[in-house]
Write a structure and sequence with these properties.
This protein has 9 helices and 10 strands. With about 240 residues, the protein is α/β, with parallel strands linked by helices. Strands 6-7-8-3-9-10 form a 6-stranded mixed sheet, sandwiched between helices. Strands 2-1-4-5 form a 4-stranded antiparallel sheet, covered by helices on one side. The protein is globular. It binds adenosine-5'-diphosphate and magnesium ion. Magnesium ion binds next to helix 1. One of its GO terms (molecular function) is ABC-type amino acid transporter activity.
């Protein structure tokens, strides 16, 4: 589903992705972790071409992102992205946040979009909040709406960039529960997170990056039990 082949990226002189090679098969959940500034956000943002790559190849669902003819709109329509900051439209209710893109971009009629959005709100445990505005919702609730909104576009891949980092501790669990349920539906997911409990329980693989390079790629049990690099050992000491 996602294939990085010798991918490099620079910001000016900063070598932010250094020869990244990764294969992520359909239905797999991959957690990306690493120190702050190591290139995690840049890595995940290349997948929907929020950041173009400078060298190497990146194939996403059969589309070659290094090919200028690739239809970026089609690519983005297949990828849901959930950020640390929930970025809901503040002037729209939870329900309208979810129906907006399906109506405008997918051309769904209002009734259909409404029914789908209600089903998604149900799925993230927020059906009764459909008429609430973002300011009336907790951070955890807003993030669950943001996930529902991404799912409304029926993506084939879901990207999460530190989805719980801006949340109060007591709200982290409710968001991780929604993500765990999503993983069980067979969604292909790439998740940047420091939540090693989630990583251990839900992910198929953990990718540890440092200074833009993949230092380690392992099953979670192996990564926790016997991290191969001093850098990953240090990182685990800090987050576990
Ligand atoms: P992480 O998500 O792991 O904290 P990032 O991918 O956000 O790391 O950033 C990796 C490095 O690239 C950092 O040194 C950061 O300052 C730098 N960086 C990120 N975005 C830009 C940008 N748009 N322009 C220049 N440098 C950037
Ligand atoms: Mg980041």
């Amino acid at each position: 589903m996602i294939r990085f082949l010798g991918v490099h990226k620079w910001f000016g002189r900063l070598h932010v992705l250094n020869d990244v090679n990764l294969h992520i098969a359909q239905g797999k959940v991959v957690v990306v972790c690493g120190p702050s500034g190591s290139g995690k956000s840049t890595l995940i943002r290349t997948i929907n071409r929020l950041e173009p790559i400078d060298r190497g190849r990146l194939i996403v669902d059969g589309m070659d992102l290094s090919d200028s003819k690739t239809d970026i709109h089609r690519l983005r329509a297949e990828i849901g992205f959930v950020f640390q900051q929930f970025n809901l439209y503040p002037h729209l209710t939870a329900l309208r946040n979810i129906t907006l893109a399906p109506i405008k971009i997918r051309g769904l009629d209002k009734k259909e979009a409404h029914n789908q959005a209600m089903a998604l709100l149900e799925r993230v445990g927020l059906a009764e909040k459909h008429n609430s505005y973002p300011s009336q919702l907790s951070g955890g609730q807003q993030q669950r709406v943001a996930i529902a909104r991404a799912l409304a576009m029926k993506p084939r891949i879901m990207l999460f960039d530190e989805p719980t980092s801006a949340l109060d501790p007591e709200m982290i669990g409710e968001v991780l529960t929604v993500m765990r349920d999503l993983a069980q539906t067979g969604m292909t997911m790439v998740v940047v997170t420091h939540e090693m409990g989630f990583a251990g329980e839900v992910s198929d693989r953990i990718v540890f990056i440092d200074n833009g390079a993949v230092l380690e790629e392992a099953e979670p049990s192996e990564f926790f039990r016997a991290p191969k690099h001093e850098r990953s050992r240090q990182f685990l000491k800090q987050v576990l």
